[in-house]
Amino acid sequence: MATPSSSSSSAAAAGPSSSTLPPVPRATSVLVIGMAGSGKSTFAGALSDYVSQQAAQQQPAAAAEVTEETPQSSPAYIVNLDPAVNSLNYEPSVDIRDTIDYKRVMEEYNLGPNGGILTSLNLFTTKFDQVLGILERRAAEVDQIILDTPGQIEIFTWSASGTIITDSLASAMPTCVAYVVDTPKTTAPATFMSNMLYACSIMYKTKLPLILVFNKIDMQTHDFALEWMSDFETFQAALQKGNATDNVDVAGNLSGARKSTGDGSGSGSYMNSLMNSMALVLDEFYNNIRAVGVSSTTHEGMSDVLSTISAARQEYLTEYRPELERLRQSRVEKENARKKEEVRRMMKDLRVGGKGGNPAGGSGGSRAEDEDKEDPRVTAMMRGEEDYDGNGTLLDPDEEEYMGQGAAQGQAGQPVRRGPGATGGISIDDGTQWPPAA
Ligand SMILES: Nc1nc2c(ncn2[C@@H]2O[C@H](COP(=O)(O)OP(=O)(O)OP(=O)(O)O)[C@@H](O)[C@H]2O)c(=O)[nH]1
User: CA-CA 20 to 30 A from 358: which of 48, 65, 266, 389?
Assistant: First the structure.
């Protein structure tokens, strides 16, 4: 839930009105990503329920002192992006299954289950601009927009459609990734390390604030994970207790079949030393990452999740958004420079063989000087200062307006004809003719 303080700081971070980005909306979008069965859907539904309960509790109390500026909590908005899910523990506001029939996609394209999910997501992404339009409207009314992703993690994280969805969302509103970890299944050092490397790669790829959500803490506390992340030596000690793939219970005892050899090397010594090195590499990741423990079934830890989402929103505003703004600005500048260069080349071409007049505004100076000068008409058109019909609408060549424009430039009120059999050519009002007369 975005707190009042986060809302006001969002407005401040929205930056000057010259920003090329849309204003910062009230909502934060949360992309729920995680390994199959980690509890993504259960977590998405639980988060939404929790936000609704909070809203219900807060609103009667706030009713007496409500002003127009008071931000009100409201239920989250959920998007289901998993086309293959059978049943959900929440009612999605937007559901990929309403648009795409995953089983039919499999039949039509002769695909297996994963190919079917990927193709369904690709097809859905072609409509994502419409979905984004809906989400942008909703972003003014709710605090959270939760997106539940497909079960197979790589279908979303390593596909073009996943990237398009993530990037579009992140350009429209504050966005963070909630990386859901199945805590009871992560007590083996090797599984833990794999999960952390995956989370790190997602953060690296999306560049978005990431929250590690240790789920299912009703079954297994996540304290061991926090300890491994904050103290390298405890992770090393867990490795030395035995094979890296053996589970370590809460008290640090091995629960796997193979027990420690007692010599401290463990049976997979190459793997252990590799993981030792990787744990050191991940140190920087651990130092800066936000981690929370939650039970999606009992709602334990949900309030921590909400405050962590608020912190992630702040990180988006202070780090991701300025970078996005800078990239947009440089893209706009490059595009303007490209257009300017094209116009300059076009004007140069028009001068070739032209009679006397210089459409680029030259007036007898050297050619190099003329090339550097801007034609005021062109400059005005590029800046949109002149009455210029370049509004993106395709002009119908048969329409009067178009013929009229030609007629103004053609001979004796005759429209200019182009293409095969054209006789008029292009005439510029200072007398230059293209193509030049033979
Ligand atoms: N005990 C407990 N079980 C949970 C919790 N969260 C999810 N589960 C269970 O874990 C199983 C998988 O949960 P889902 O929400 O379907 O997981 P998912 O990641 O969305 O699954 P896929 O999308 O199919 O990969 C279900 O049986 C849930 O009931 C939790 O916090 N505690």
Answer: 389
Q: Are 27 and 173 in contact (CB under 8 A)?
A: yes
* pLDDT tens column, 128-182: 999 999 999 999 999 999 999 998 898 999 899 999 999 999 999 999 999 999 9
Which residue segments constitute the domains of the chain, with CATH numbers given?
Answer: 25-329 (3.40.50.300)
> Taking the complete model, does pTM exceed 0.80, yes or no?
no
Contact yes or no for 340/382 (Cβ under 8 A) = yes
Which burial class, exposed, middle or buried, applies to 10 when counting CB atoms under 10 A from its CB (0-12, 13-18, 19+)? buried
Distance CA 274, CA 263 (A): 18
Query: Which residue in 220, 193, 181 sits closest to 33, CA to CA?
Result: 181
Indicate the residue type of 196.
Answer: M
The residue to which tokens 């909306």 are assigned: 25
Ligand 1 atom nearest the C-alpha of 149 is 23
309 CA distance to ligand 1 centroid (A)?
A: 21
Supply the DSSP symbol for 79. Answer: E
pLDDT of residue 350: 72
Residue 89 Cα to ligand 1 midpoint, Å, equals: 10
> Cα Rg for the chain, rounded, in angstroms?
30
Q: Using a 6 Å CB cutoff, which residues line ligand 1?
A: 34, 36-42, 82, 151, 215-216, 218-219, 295-297
Cis peptide before 397 (omega within 30 of 0): no
Identify the residue whose C-alpha is closest to ligand 1 atom 32. Answer: 216
DSSP string, 283-311: HHHHHH-EEEE--TTT-TTHHHHHHHHHH
- Chain segment 235-292, per-residue pLDDT in tens: 888 877 765 566 665 544 545 444 444 444 444 577 777 777 887 888 888 988 999 9
Using DSSP's 3-state secondary structure scheme, residue 364 falls into: coil
Q: Which of 81, 183, 296 to mutate to test the pocket of ligand 1 (most atoms within 8 A of CB)?
A: 296
**Helices assigned H by DSSP within 14-100:** 40-63, 96-99
User: 332-388 pLDDT, tens per residue?
Assistant: 888 889 888 888 888 777 766 555 445 444 445 555 555 556 556 555 545 444 444
